[in-house]
């Protein structure tokens, strides 16, 4: 087991390293000129342009730039613009000259918002989605099952942003049944934190619960027809124990794969939800920096997002091996 | 709910007179199923009594009678083999005994009694108490019948915990004891292993350990060796035989393999198209069979001891349960139906009657001279 | 495993008939990766490790053994569904073991295979007519427009209603599907059919029908069979010659009467003794019962010397150090070979009722 985790960790770290190189290549070797974008269109003189280039070491060989960037992540570095020194502490992901702040600080502001949103979402899909799916599987073929499944189909065939916009418009603005979205840090005011996130949670959660329910149902129906489920019943276990202990454990394996990727994707930015409910998360940050052409921020976000993705994959693998002993061997 | 303990004896008397009456009346289309089948060929008091069991379930093409008027009984310490080909109803009937059929869709009529207590119609929570405790099951494929994600030991201990209010530690000790009993070396280490770390034979041993952990009165073994290799099959059959001596359980062995039947069974029941067509002691059914279908089965098996004579297969295919032939279900495939006067084979369903007018060996066939046909024609071909 | 069994010397020079198929020291080693600590170790599954035999025209050779003995892998190599790791497959003198796909095509026609599972080996979306006529077209065996006639002829030959050529496999029962599989193999007029457990998925009464069909084909068309099965009764019935396999090697080989009547190798003796037999009730029960302990070892790391020694009651030191050769033993009949240091014929293992 320990070996298994170690092996997966090594491969996860190597993926992160590759991502680092690729992101760096995409943004700094790309035809767009970072110095020109920092310099701006107006009042950009050749002198100023050259100074930026020199200060940012953009005139140095690419390999050296990459080395400095990488070292900066672990040791921090100092940037100099217009004679002003800017400290960028480790882990330094670059410096946003547009916002005059280190990228890391900006991400530190935004990440808790997205994490809060996704954490609540994860709890919803894993409990409600999986439970509804398992119940439907247990009662497959009955009226309840069919009603449940057709309603989830209807809901999931409406595009997400329409559902989110409609709910936001009707239930929080026109008929304010639900609190309006917004973000207050948990440490400042837990009540406000909860209230601000409730509507986004519900919208994101219920919409995606339908897919989790369908997915879990399919997986559970298959598992419930396995021979070992019959064995469990033959032992004299109750239907409840058979379904929620014996079947659920196997039935969850495919769901976890989807869940891991889904959560990783949402963490990297639930753009629609953050936009519609006005949450200052990573997704909004990406949109802003794309608009501003703020390359260091985009690059930092991409890097962090890919690390999250790799980390989630790693966690899924570990979860797999905890659930299924056969995985540890292969 | 409970049946008086002396009923088997009453039944026997009734059977005798009914059979005699029937012989005088002549054959009739058997709409009313008779009770004689529940007499055990050994004459001992049965633990399991199945009487006039009918199992129907709906399919896309209509209601199917998978089992039709089946009666048999098994006393403690005795093994009944139910033999038949796929679709003959042999598995369906035993699933009904365990209450493992799909309860919403399946219609069950008739009676199944365990130690005199009626099981048919019991609510699920009552059945749960019986399942795995008084009656347990060993399935065909130990690879797919064990949960791949739980350790073998935990699965056995769980079976014990369901029916005993004891600590996990006691259940663990019991499971270790059972692993040892079924001949799994190094139980302490094996307890913690997962099914995929076991070989096929070891897995089936573990399944048997799980089946016997609660000291059941009745074990239903559904093709327990079909998925195993020959040398391992021999080990498992020996194990089942030895354990039966030790535990004294009644065993219902479901199989298609007459060789396994010969090794294991005290009594044999042959099923065809949902009905019992021959029933008696193993010696009666295998050495003195009195039903053309049983003859056909015996003649189709290539045995290790037989010379290279041409096999004599049963012609044609088993009938669809949705569209059974009129009269005897076996008549379209029966090479002897011309020897019955008139069209009785195609019009009248033969009843399950004692082959020699009385006794426990019964068969469902209109032929009059079954004994002489067998001795003169079939037996020489079997060698 | 460099030790090669010198079978060539042992095969009886049966003068007049030259073998149709000669298999020489055939090996199939599947590389696998196994987890070992932080890395992975490359290992080899020795599925088949040096198998040799001859097949004469119209003969039938049975390959018997338990799961994992390599009998199916051998069948797949002969039909070149697998490319052997080493060894020769001489079909009428040409070694087809390493032929490229293009050069192999004429031989594919001669060597056909019938699979175990009639449910998964027929394409459910093709009509029976399509299934059978595809090989006819591939090998240009029939003129355009005459295909249906040939298909119907074949269906009739295997005992199916020729009118049913337009049906799909799911409209047939297991036994009928196996007949379709046989018709497909027959379509190209092969000289050898490899039958891989052709009846083990079928019910007893249907099994006998299919066995008889194959026997007719052998007799009428002179097709030679390599018959792969785990059921000793079925093999005894169908095959003139039997090779018993254990962990990738042939441990005993010879004419049917010898193998069943006076087996020499302990494994063959154990197999025969373990086969449940009706004789116990109807005739004389066998005098001696042999029960093997334990399971077949892994083909990844087979025992040294004799591979059967870990389960053998006769095993001594020499068995671990020296691999026994498949050779004629002092007391064996002609053409009967066994790979055992302590080979000794044993009779009375099966109830002789005949």
From TrEMBL, chain A:
Residues spanning the membrane: 12-30, 115-137, 158-178, 190-210, 255-277, 297-323
Presence of the UniProt keyword RNA-binding in the record: no
Taxonomic superkingdom: Bacteria
Keywords: Cell membrane, Membrane, Transmembrane, Transmembrane helix, Transport
Range of residues in the leader sequence: none
Similarity comment: Belongs to the binding-protein-dependent transport system permease family.
Protein name: Peptide/nickel transport system permease protein
Biological classification of the source: Bacteria, Bacillati, Actinomycetota, Actinomycetes, Propionibacteriales
TrEMBL record, chain B:
UniProt cross-references to SMART domains, sorted A to Z: AAA (SM00382)
Gene Ontology molecular function: ATP binding; ATP hydrolysis activity
Stored SUPFAM superfamilies: P-loop containing nucleoside triphosphate hydrolases (SSF52540)
One cellular component (GO) term of this entry: plasma membrane
Gene3D superfamilies referenced in this protein's UniProt entry, alphabetically: P-loop containing nucleotide triphosphate hydrolases
Domain of life: Bacteria
Biased composition, class Basic and acidic residues, residue ranges: 21-36
Every ABC transporter domain range: 48-298
InterPro entries associated with the record: AAA+_ATPase, ABC_Ni/Peptide_Import, ABC_transporter-like_ATP-bd, ABC_transporter-like_CS, Oligopep_ABC_C, P-loop_NTPase
Residues spanning the signal sequence: none
Membrane topology, from the record: Peripheral membrane protein
Entry keywords, A to Z: ATP-binding, Cell membrane, Membrane, Nucleotide-binding, Transport
Family: Belongs to the ABC transporter superfamily.
Protein's name according to its UniProt entry: Peptide/nickel transport system ATP-binding protein
Automatic annotation (TrEMBL), chain C:
Keywords assigned by UniProt, alphabetized: ATP-binding, Nucleotide-binding, Transport
Keyword Nucleotide-binding: yes
Ranges for domain ABC transporter: 21-272
PROSITE patterns according to UniProt: ABC_TRANSPORTER_1 (PS00211), ABC_TRANSPORTER_2 (PS50893)
Gene3D superfamilies in alphabetical order: P-loop containing nucleotide triphosphate hydrolases (3.40.50.300)
Example GO molecular function: ATP binding
SUPFAM superfamilies for the chain: P-loop containing nucleoside triphosphate hydrolases
Keyword ATP-binding part of the UniProt annotation: yes
Listed GO biological process terms: peptide transport; transmembrane transport
Domain of life: Bacteria
UniProt cross-references to InterPro entries, sorted A to Z: AAA+_ATPase, ABC_transp_ATP-bind, ABC_transporter-like_ATP-bd, ABC_transporter-like_CS, Oligopep_ABC_C, P-loop_NTPase
Similarity comment: family membership: Belongs to the ABC transporter superfamily.
PANTHER family, per the entry: D,D-DIPEPTIDE TRANSPORT ATP-BINDING PROTEIN DDPF-RELATED, TRANSPORT ATP-BINDING PROTEIN
Designated name of the protein: Peptide/nickel transport system ATP-binding protein
Source organism (scientific name): Kribbella caucasensis
């Amino acid at each position: 087991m320990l070996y298994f985790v170690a092996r997966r960790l090594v491969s996860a770290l190597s993926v992160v390293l590759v991502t680092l190189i690729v992101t760096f290549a995409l943004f700094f070797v790309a035809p767009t000129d970072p110095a020109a974008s920092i310099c701006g269109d107006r009042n950009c003189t050749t002198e100023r342009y050259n100074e930026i280039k020199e200060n940012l070491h953009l005139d140095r060989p690419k390999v050296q730039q990459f080395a400095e960037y990488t070292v900066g992540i672990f040791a921090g570095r100092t940037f100099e613009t217009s004679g002003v020194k800017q400290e960028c502490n480790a882990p330094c992901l670059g410096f946003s000259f547009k916002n005059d702040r280190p990228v890391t600080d900006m991400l530190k502001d935004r990440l808790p918002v997205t994490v809060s949103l996704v954490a609540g979402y994860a709890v919803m899909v894993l409990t409600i989605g999986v439970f509804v799916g398992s119940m439907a599987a247990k009662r497959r073929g009955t009226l309840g099952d069919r009603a449940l499944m057709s309603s989830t189909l209807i809901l999931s065939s409406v595009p997400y942003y329409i559902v989110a916009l409609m709910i936001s418009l009707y239930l929080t603005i026109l008929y304010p049944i639900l609190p309006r979205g917004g973000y207050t840090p948990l440490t400042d005011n837990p009540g406000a934190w909860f209230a601000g996130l409730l509507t986004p949670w519900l919208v994101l959660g219920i919409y995606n619960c339908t897919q989790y329910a369908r997915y879990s149902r399919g997986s559970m129906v298959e598992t419930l027809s396995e021979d070992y489920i019959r064995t469990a019943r033959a032992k004299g276990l109750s239907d409840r124990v058979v379904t929620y202990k014996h079947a659920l454990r196997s039935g969850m394996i495919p769901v976890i794969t989807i869940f891991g990727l889904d959560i990783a994707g949402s963490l990297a930015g639930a753009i629609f939800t953050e936009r519609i409910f006005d949450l200052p998360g990573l997704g909004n940050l990406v949109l802003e920096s794309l608009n501003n052409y703020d390359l260091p921020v985009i690059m930092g976000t991409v890097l962090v997002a890919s690390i999250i993705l790799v980390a989630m994959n790693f966690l899924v693998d570990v979860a797999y091996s905890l659930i299924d002993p056969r995985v540890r061997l292969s | 709910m409970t049946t008086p303990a002396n009923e088997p004896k009453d039944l026997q008397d009734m059977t005798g007179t009914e059979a005699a009456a029937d012989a005088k009346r002549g054959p009739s289309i058997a709409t009313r199923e008779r009770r004689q089948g529940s007499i055990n060929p050994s004459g001992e008091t049965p633990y399991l009594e199945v009487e006039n069991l009918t199992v129907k379930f709906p399919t896309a093409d209509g209601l199917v009678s998978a089992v039709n008027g089946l009666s048999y009984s098994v006393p403690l310490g005795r093994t009944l083999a139910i033999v038949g080909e796929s679709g003959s109803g042999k598995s369906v009937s035993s699933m009904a005994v365990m209450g493992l059929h799909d309860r919403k869709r399946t219609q069950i009529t008739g009676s199944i009694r365990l130690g005199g207590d009626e099981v048919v119609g019991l609510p699920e929570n009552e059945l749960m108490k019986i399942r795995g405790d008084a009656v347990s099951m060993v399935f065909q494929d130990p690879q797919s019948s064990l949960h791949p994600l739980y350790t073998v030991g935990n699965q056995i201990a769980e079976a014990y915990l369901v029916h005993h209010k004891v600590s996990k530690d006691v259940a663990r000790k019991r499971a270790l004891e059972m692993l040892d009993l079924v001949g799994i070396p190094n139980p302490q280490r094996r307890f913690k292993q997962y099914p995929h770390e076991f070989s096929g034979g070891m897995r089936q041993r573990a399944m048997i350990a799980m089946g016997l952990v609660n000291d059941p009165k009745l074990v239903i073994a559904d093709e327990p060796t079909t998925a195993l290799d020959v040398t391992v099959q021999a080990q498992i059959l020996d194990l089942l035989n030895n354990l039966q001596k030790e535990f004294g359980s009644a065993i219902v062995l479901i199989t298609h393999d007459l060789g396994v039947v010969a090794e294991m069974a005290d009594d044999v029941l042959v099923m065809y198209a949902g009905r019992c067509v021959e029933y008696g002691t193993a010696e009666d059914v295998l050495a003195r069979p009195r039903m053309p279908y049983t003859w056909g089965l015996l003649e189709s098996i290539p045995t290790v001891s037989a010379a290279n004579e041409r096999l004599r297969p049963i012609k044609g295919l088993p009938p669809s349960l949705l569209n059974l032939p009129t009269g005897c279900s076996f008549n379209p495939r029966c090479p002897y139906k011309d020897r019955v006067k008139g069209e009785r084979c195609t019009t009248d369903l033969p009843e399950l009657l004692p082959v020699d007018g009385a006794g426990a060996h019964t068969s469902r066939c209109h032929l009059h001279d079954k004994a002489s046909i067998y001795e003169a024609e079939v037996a020489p071909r079997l060698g | 495993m460099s030790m090669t069994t010198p079978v060539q010397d042992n095969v009886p020079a049966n003068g007049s008939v030259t073998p149709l198929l000669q298999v020489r020291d055939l090996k199939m080693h599947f590389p696998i990766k196994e987890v070992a600590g932080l890395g992975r170790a490359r290992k080899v599954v020795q599925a088949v490790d040096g198998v040799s035999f001859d097949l004469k025209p119209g003969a039938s050779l049975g390959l018997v053994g338990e799961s994992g003995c390599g009998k199916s892998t051998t069948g797949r190599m002969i039909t070149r569904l697998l490319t052997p790791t080493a060894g020769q497959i001489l079909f009428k003198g040409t070694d087809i073991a390493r032929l490229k796909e293009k050069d192999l095509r004429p031989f594919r026609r001669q060597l056909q295979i019938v699979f175990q599972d009639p449910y998964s080996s027929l394409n459910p979306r093709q009509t029976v007519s399509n299934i059978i006529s595809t090989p006819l077209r591939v090998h240009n065996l029939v003129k355009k427009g005459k295909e249906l006639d040939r298909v119907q002829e074949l269906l009739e030959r295997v005992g199916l209603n020729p009118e049913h050529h337009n049906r799909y496999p799911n409209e047939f029962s297991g036994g009928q599907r196996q007949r379709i599989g046989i018709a497909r193999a027959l379509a190209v007029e092969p000289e050898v059919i490899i039958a891989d457990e052709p009846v083990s998925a079928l019910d007893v009464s249907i099994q006998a029908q299919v066995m008889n069909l194959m026997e007719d084909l052998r007799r009428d068309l002179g097709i030679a069979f390599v018959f792969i099965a785990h059921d000793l009764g079925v093999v005894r019935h169908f095959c003139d010659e039997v090779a018993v396999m254990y962990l990738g090697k042939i441990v005993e080989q010879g004419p049917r009467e010898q193998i069943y009547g006076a087996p020499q190798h302990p494994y063959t003796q154990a197999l025969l003794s373990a086969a449940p037999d009706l004789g116990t009730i109807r005739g004389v029960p066998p005098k001696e019962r042999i029960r093997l302990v334990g399971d077949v070892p892994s083909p990844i790391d087979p025992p040294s010397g004799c591979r059967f020694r870990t389960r053998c009651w006769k095993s001594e030191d020499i068995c671990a150090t020296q691999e026994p050769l498949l050779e004629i033993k002092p007391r064996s009949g002609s053409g009967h070979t066994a790979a055992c240091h302590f080979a000794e014929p044993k009779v009375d293992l099966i109830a002789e009722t005949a």
